[in-house]
Amino acid sequence: MTESDLIALRPYASKYIWWKTPDEAMLMPERVVAQVMNIGDYSDVQAVANRIGETYLHDVLQHAEIGQFSERSWAYWHYRLGLISAIDVMPAMPKRRIE
């Protein structure tokens, strides 16, 4: 992610990670992106996706932490990014493992 991408992402940090300051939230831009992917409105999702590209979105999805995505968002992003087709089995969401 470029410096200009980080600057463009900053307004979403305060909107979607409201419990932290924008500076704190931007220490982990992938969490900001995950929040937009999970609960963002249509225009914010489109703006972030167009700005940072599908490769970064794919990476955020593949490295998602437990609870970052709802089932609905998880399915949507797998279809939108072409990671699965309608006949494929949806990959399991991240789960806590008790050992």
Describe the structure.
This protein has 6 helices and no strands. The chain has 99 residues and is an all-alpha fold. The chain has one domain (3-80). Helix 1 (3-16) packs across helix 3 and helix 1 (3-16) packs antiparallel against helix 4 (42-52).
What distinguishing features does this structure have?
0% strand, mainly alpha, 99 residues, 6 helices, globular
Residue-averaged pLDDT, rounded? 94
Give the tally of β-strands.
0
Individual helix count: 6
Percent of residues in β-strands: under 5%
Name the overall outline: globular
What is the share of helical residues? Answer: 55-70%
Question: In whole angstroms, how far apart are the ends?
Answer: 35 Å
Major beta sheet summary: none
Order of helices and strands: HHHHHH
Count of all domains: 1
**Rg:** 14 Å
What structural category arises from helix and sheet content? mainly alpha
Topology, please?
Blueprint: H1 3-16, H2 22-25, H3 29-39, H4 42-52, H5 54-62, H6 71-80
Helix pairs in contact: 1-3, 1-4
Quick recap:
The protein is built from six helices and no strands. The protein is mostly helical and 99 residues long.
